């Protein structure tokens, strides 16, 4: 275990032009810094938070945990690192991931390159010298040749604009801005708004601690048991004996959570109902995202999808004692079009006498007063509120920065009808700016660790190529960008992902354009990136 060092909080005195500035010190920013140093670039990371870790620094709520296997949710770039780090559980907790990222930072001396408690407020491209001029908060300026956005897909919390929210007298916590020290909820009536992945994790943890828990549910959620457990030493030894092979198989899987799991090659409709039940039951018993891959067409065929949805609804009916509650907890939308979840005792929690479930789908929250949440016809007295209301996903953190490219073009205007870019990496009109796991890349539909490593390596290889060839400006061409946006939409339209109101579509944020933002499928994406490089960065304008 490494000693936790004090965060570095100021910029070095020599504040000349950096080769690169990286915004964000999560998994992406840390690896980007390491790679840039390896290729000899001077680099500074700017991080709004008081410490490193990004997602795993901010989301410290009780129960916060990854739902990708720990041995896959870790960097693969250094064989010694992957051999020396010992994960304790099948799915790592927030605390364990955070300790891991601290270990990585210590091992590669990354803290020395990060300025904490500092936010990038604006970025202006200066065409005369091909430099980005950054305005920071607290007030400082910074210049760099390349601007690398490691700002995260799920880093800009969504705080709903509910009438009277500010008047509430008790504390209001957002899961993605959880306090650093544990919160004592004992003897309190606590309300939780939201039951996505974060809500599903925090609700079973809070229920035993509080006097009364009131869950305000707008949409019921599909979830299967995670069956988290301590890792078996023998299975770890076996994986570590061929870690490169294990990683290679990860990269061949289209979805994060299914890595290294044999996915079924048949349709749900190609087997008898009895066999289908048996296979679903086996996946359910195994636990984890394998359930969602029991058949190969669950996200492509509505009828197949319905069979899985019905299986989960039946399970909920068996777990939850009160049939009316079970019905309310049973989702009706297309399974998977909102990100499905893993659960650890979520449905059982609703058998507790101190847990209320309030349906706000037809009877929405009208207002919040100093001591209660009010629906149209009812009020719920509360002493604390937890917002598990998610994020302005994929574009939120980028759009909060006033980014101005060529000819005064602002990113906010360019993306006013949805994100447009090439490969999820580069935006026409915004030279020398790269987004790590930007919209238009597989990002949130994959094991993000795999997606992040692929992007960081692609970007650093590109910067090295530019240095070798004497180029100092790069941007996506308008044609390549237009084709890419069409491609992302076409791939999504072949699936069931676009069939409900999800954050993938921006539907959770009032006024946000409805565009399916991630690209479905990691291996075909990586395949598309390779010839782009081989053909001298096809689709990019280099000068
Ligand atoms: P982040 O970790 O989001 O880091 C971005 C950083 O940028 C933040 O620290 C932020 O403060 C900083 N920043 C943003 N804007 C600015 C600015 N203007 N100025 C300065 N700093 C700025 N993915 C999986 O693959 N598997 C999982 O099981 C999984 N579980 C998750 C659980 C939770 C609770 C959440 C929220 C996400 C989960 N994810 C999961 C997705 C997760 O976000 C990624 O796996 C990964 O951590 C993203 O790393 P990142 O460095 O790209 O972004
Ligand atoms: O956010 P969400 P999240 N009034 O957007 C409700 C990752 N993650 O933080 O569905 C009332 O999924 C909203 O209701 P509805 C993962 O990628 C991973 O839970 O819009 N309710 C929903 O119930 C995940 O998908 C892990 O009708 C409101 C909830 O709040 C992503 O982060 C763990 C509301 C928001 O759910 C986001 O997950 C945690 C309003 N005004 C997160 N606004 C793991 O890997 C929103 N809601 C384990």
What does this structure look like?
The chain has 543 residues and is an alpha/beta fold. The protein has a domain at 18-154 and 393-542: 3-Layer(bba) Sandwich (FAD/NAD(P)-binding domain), CATH 3.50.50.60. It has helices at 27-38, 55-58, 79-84, 94-107, 197-206, 233-241, 243-252, 273-286, 302-319, 323-328, 346-349, 396-399, 411-414, 448-469, 478-493, 522-534, and strands at residues 18-23, 43-46, 114-115, 119-126, 131-137, 140-149, 172-174, 189-193, 212-217, 223-225, 341-343, 355-359, 365-369, 372-375, 379-381, 384-387, 402-404, 433-435, 474-476, 540-542. Strands 1, 2, 3, 4, 5, 6, 17 and 18 form an 8-stranded mixed beta sheet that branches. A 5-stranded parallel beta sheet has the order 7-16-8-9-12, covered by helices on one side. Strands 13-14-15 form a 3-stranded antiparallel beta sheet, with no helix packed on it. The longest helix has 22 residues, at 448-469. It is globular. It starts with 17 loop residues before the first strand and ends with a strand. Residues 1-6 have low confidence and may be disordered. 3-acetylpyridine adenine dinucleotide binds next to helix 5. 3-acetylpyridine adenine dinucleotide (N01) binds at residues 65-67, 154, 160, 175, 193-199, 201, 218-219, 339, 360, 365, 388-391, 444, 503, 508.
């Amino acid at each position: 275990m490494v000693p936790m060092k004090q965060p570095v909080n100021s910029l070095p005195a020599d504040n000349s032009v950096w080769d690169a500035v990286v915004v964000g010190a999560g998994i992406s920013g840390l690896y980007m810094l390491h790679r840039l140093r390896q290729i000899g670039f001077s680099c500074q990371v700017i991080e709004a938070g008081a410490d490193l870790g990004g997602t795993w620094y901010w989301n410290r709520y009780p129960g916060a945990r990854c739902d990708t296997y720990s041995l896959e949710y870790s960097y693969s770039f250094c064989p010694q690192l992957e051999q020396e780090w010992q994960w304790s559980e099948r799915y790592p907790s927030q605390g364990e991931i955070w300790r891991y990222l601290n270990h990585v930072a210590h091992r590669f001396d990354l803290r020395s390159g990060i300025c904490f408690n500092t936010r990038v407020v604006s970025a202006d491209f200066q065409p005369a010298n091909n430099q980005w001029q950054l305005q920071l908060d607290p007030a400082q300026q910074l210049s760099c040749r390349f601007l690398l956005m490691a700002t995260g897909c799920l880093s800009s919390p969504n705080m709903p604009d509910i009438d009277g929210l500010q008047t509430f007298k008790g504390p209001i916590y957002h899961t993605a801005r959880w306090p650093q020290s544990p919160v004592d909820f004992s003897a309190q009536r606590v309300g939780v708004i939201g039951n996505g992945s974060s809500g599903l994790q925090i609700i079973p943890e809070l229920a035993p601690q509080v006097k009364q828990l009131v869950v305000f549910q707008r949409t019921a959620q599909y979830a299967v048991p995670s069956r988290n457990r301590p890792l078996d030493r023998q299975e770890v030894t076996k994986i570590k004996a061929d870690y490169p092979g294990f990683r290679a198989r990860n990269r061949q899987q289209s979805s994060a959570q299914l890595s290294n799991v044999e996915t079924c090659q048949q349709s749900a409709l190609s087997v008898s109902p009895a066999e289908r039940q048996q296979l679903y039951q086996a996946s359910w018993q195994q636990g984890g995202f394998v359930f969602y891959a029991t058949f190969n067409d669950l996200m492509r065929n509505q009828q197949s999808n319905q069979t899985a949805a019905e299986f989960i609804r039946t399970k909920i009916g068996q777990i939850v004692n009160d049939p009316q509650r079970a019905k309310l907890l049973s989702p009706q939308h297309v399974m998977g079009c909102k990100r499905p979840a893993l659960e650890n005792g979520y449905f059982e929690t609703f058998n507790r006498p101190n847990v209320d479930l309030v349906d706000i789908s037809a009877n929405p929250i009208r207002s919040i007063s100093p001591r209660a949440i009010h629906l149209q016809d009812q009020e719920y007295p509360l002493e604390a509120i937890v917002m598990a209301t998610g994020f302005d996903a994929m574009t939120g953190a980028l759009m909060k920065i006033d980014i101005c490219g060529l000819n005064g073009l602002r990113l906010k205007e360019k993306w006013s009808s949805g994100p447009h870019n090439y490969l999820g990496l580069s935006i026409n009109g915004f030279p020398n700016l790269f987004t790590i796991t930007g919209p238009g890349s597989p990002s949130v539909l994959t094991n993000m660790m795999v997606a992040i490593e692929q992007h960081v390596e692609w970007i650093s290889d590109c910067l090295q190529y530019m240095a070798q060839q004497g180029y100092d400006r790069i941007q996506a061409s308008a044609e390549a960008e237009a084709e890419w946006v069409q491609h992302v939409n076409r791939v999504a339209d072949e699936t069931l992902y676009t069939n409900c109101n999800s954050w993938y579509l921006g539907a959770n944020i009032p006024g946000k354009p409805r565009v399916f933002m991630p690209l479905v499928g990691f291996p075909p994406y990586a395949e598309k990136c390779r010839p782009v490089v081989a053909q001298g960065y096809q689709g990019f304008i280099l000068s």
